[in-house]
Design a protein that fits this description.
By secondary structure, the chain is α+β, with helices and mostly antiparallel strands. The chain has six helices and eight strands, in the order βαββαβαβαββαβα. The strands form two sheets. The protein has a four-stranded antiparallel sheet. It has a four-stranded antiparallel sheet with strand order 6-7-5-8.
């Protein structure tokens, strides 16, 4: 089965540094095949005969052992990633006029009510839920008014890992 491991909070502001080459070698040492990484934010595509839960446990334990600190990791199947990417409206982009992101959700916050709990101003941002993710689109001129930047201080932010729409679409199409 094809999987992706989405690592949360690595290589941000010089903290929790993880080299992608070391990450690739680690995944290969676990017996995973066709391992590739995409950009420096912790996206690892691979294949395994293990089920998703086993992969999650093995990856989490191996990351701690290899790098010496906890790294939250969210494992998704190819089908899950493609379903999420397909749900994003085709006219949502990252460009000079708009910003679109996908927040992949860990199980503890994976519910539609997460949208109502976030400190955002929905009159300025279109935010949608699909099992496993929320995604949003905001006009750049309304970004500050939307309060999207306040998500970072919300307690549920620790249980999501965010990728821009270009990355989300790329990952879904290259699995």
């Amino acid at each position: 089965m094809r999987y992706i491991a989405l690592l949360r909070g690595i290589n941000v502001g010089g903290n929790k540094k993880v080299e992608m080459k070391k990450l690739k070698v680690l995944f290969e040492s676990l017996g995973y095949v066709n391992v590739s990484t995409y950009i420096n934010s912790g996206n690892i595509i691979f294949q395994s005969i293990e089920n998703k839960d086993s992969v999650s446990v093995n990856v989490r334990k191996s990351l701690k052992r290899e790098f010496g600190f906890e790294i939250r990791v969210l494992v998704k199947t190819e089908k899950e990633m493609q379903k999420i990417a397909a749900a994003i409206p085709a006219d949502w982009h990252n460009d000079a006029k708009q910003k679109t992101d996908v927040a992949y959700l860990f199980a503890d916050v994976d519910t539609k009510k997460i949208i109502d709990e976030l400190p955002i101003k929905k009159e300025f941002v279109d935010v949608r839920y699909l099992k496993g993710a929320i995604f949003w689109n905001v006009k750049r001129k309304d970004y500050n008014k939307s309060h999207l930047n306040k998500i970072i201080s919300h307690e549920s932010y620790q249980s999501m890992t965010v990728r821009n729409v270009n990355t989300a679409r790329y990952l879904a199409s290259h699995m």
